[in-house]
TrEMBL record:
Pfam families: HATPase_c_2. GO terms for molecular function: ATP binding. InterPro entries: Anti-sigma-factor_SerPK (IPR050267), HATPase_C_sf (IPR036890), HATPase_dom (IPR003594). It comes from the Bacteria. CDD domains: HATPase_RsbW-like (cd16936). Gene3D superfamilies: Histidine kinase-like ATPase, C-terminal domain. The keyword Transferase applies. SUPFAM superfamilies: ATPase domain of HSP90 chaperone/DNA topoisomerase II/histidine kinase (SSF55874). It comes from Paenibacillus agricola. This is ATP-binding protein. The keyword Transcription regulation does not apply. Keywords: ATP-binding, Kinase, Nucleotide-binding, Serine/threonine-protein kinase, Transferase.
Length: 145
């Protein structure tokens, strides 16, 4: 377990998602992350970065998305920061997943997933930057204990 912060900068381009996935996989191997947690982190990052690119970067101007990871023996800290439009993804209530599909509102399931798999998740707007901070505990697989 390194305890070393790793960072990556992405452009507001959906093609960057492949690079992000490769970076996460490399980091997970370095940290001996269990496959389930890697899968969850991949989905969380994919959902939040995709939303940022599609809805937060509404002009053709270049934008940057910064992602950082830090893990210790108990907790993974994941931070996603961007210079897009101000938006708190956690301000909306979670969708009612007990309703039949045809009765549910469109959208919100990705953020619902983030809330479900991360132990902490919050949003702050600092100047012209959106920052989403998340923590996941208990990330080690049982055979690593």
């Amino acid at each position: 377990m390194g305890g070393e912060r790793r960072e990556i900068e992405l452009k507001n381009d959906l093609e960057e998602l492949e690079r992000l996935g490769n970076w996460l996989t490399e980091w997970a191997e370095h940290e001996s992350l269990n496959p389930k947690t890697l899968f969850q982190l991949n989905l969380v990052c994919d959902e939040l970065v995709t939303n940022t690119i599609l809805y937060g970067c509404t002009t053709d101007a270049a934008h940057t998305i910064w992602i950082s990871l830090l893990a210790d023996s108990e907790t993974i800290e994941l931070t996603i920061k961007d210079d897009g439009l101000a938006f708190d993804p956690f301000a909306r209530p979670s969708p009612d997943v007990t309703l039949p599909l045809e009765e549910r509102e469109i959208g919100g399931l990705g953020i619902h997933f983030v809330r479900e798999v991360m132990d902490e998740a919050f949003y702050v707007r600092e100047g012209s930057f959106n920052t989403i901070c998340m923590k996941k505990t208990g990330w080690k697989s049982p055979q690593e204990d």
